[in-house]
Amino acid sequence: MEFCPHGSLYSLLEQPENSFGLCEDEFLRVLIHVTAGVKHLRDNDIIHRDIKPGNILRSVAADGRSVFKLTDFGAARELQEDEEFLSLYGTDEYLHPDMYERAVLRKSRGQQFGSYVDLWSLGVTFYHTATGSLPFRPYGGRKNKDTMFRITAKKEHGVISGVQEVQDGPIRWSRDLPATCALSRGLQLLITPFLASLLEKDPEKMIGFDEFFAQVDDISQRNSYDVFCPSSFSMLKVYTRPRDDMSLLRQLITDQTDIPGGAQLLLHDGKVLCDESRSSVASSLSQVSADSPIFVFNRLPEYKPFFKPAYGSFLDVPPETSLDTDYLLSKRNFAVLHAVRNCVKSLLLRNSLMTRAVNMYSAYV
């Protein structure tokens, strides 16, 4: 058996710098590597039944990149996609609501479950990886079992998170990832509907494994391009399919900036990007990076909302010490400090790009 000396995905998410989720590249590695492990299981008609960050180990390849491996098959069993099972396994926060109702609340005895329970656990795991938090959180956490079930079982179609912030308080529902999520807006546009299709209580509305694998393949095969928009001081990432042409690139930029394709002036390395030909973006562009992005200027004289960084909020430090709360309070504030540091680095890069944008546009006109 291979030795994985770098802990689990859970231990990685517990580090303060990852408290608001993993960076984009690392998140995509988790998505691709875990999906490859699940596909191997399904190719052999096996379900895992306890997918969670703690059961995903991390090793580091020779090039320094993380490799994530699905482990702990103590609850795994053979099961065709159209078959069902009765036995109960899993971890509370990652359980499908039907399993949670029977395993934790001790209700609905005799109910059977299908392979879809792994898809729900994958949805919770990927949300946790993207945001650093569980998607469904009752006040008081695990011990508030009835509210936990109510959140997961009663949420509306398309909702990907539900949080109760005060005891017996209302549930704050969301169809979007939180503002503190480290993923780019471009990747969020792909990931959010993907998560929504996994976090469906009704198996009839949830995607099947074939569609799950197809969606992950589509995301993993896309090329990403960094884009800087001076009018909103925003850094974007657009994800194109290998055969997408420049007109589709403009549409993806429109989706994130609301600048119509015909009003976009695209410059890269001082040169105007045209889309008269139907050649692919991949063949038209090279060496695009955060330090050398595509610059998109708005030809229309209209105002666009300016970029506003999101990094969470510091918790007040009480004058008295408490062993029960000081660790969590310190961890939270360290997490916000890491987020502030990342925002400062991003703002400094944007400031440098703004200077280049002015010089580039001046040369163009």
UniProtKB/TrEMBL annotation:
GO terms for molecular function: ATP binding; protein serine/threonine kinase activity. This is Protein kinase domain-containing protein. It comes from the Eukaryota. GO terms for cellular component: cytoplasm. It is found in: Cytoplasm. Residues 1-228 form the Protein kinase domain. It comes from Elysia chlorotica. The keyword Lyase does not apply. Keywords: ATP-binding, Cytoplasm, Kinase, Nucleotide-binding, Serine/threonine-protein kinase, Transferase.
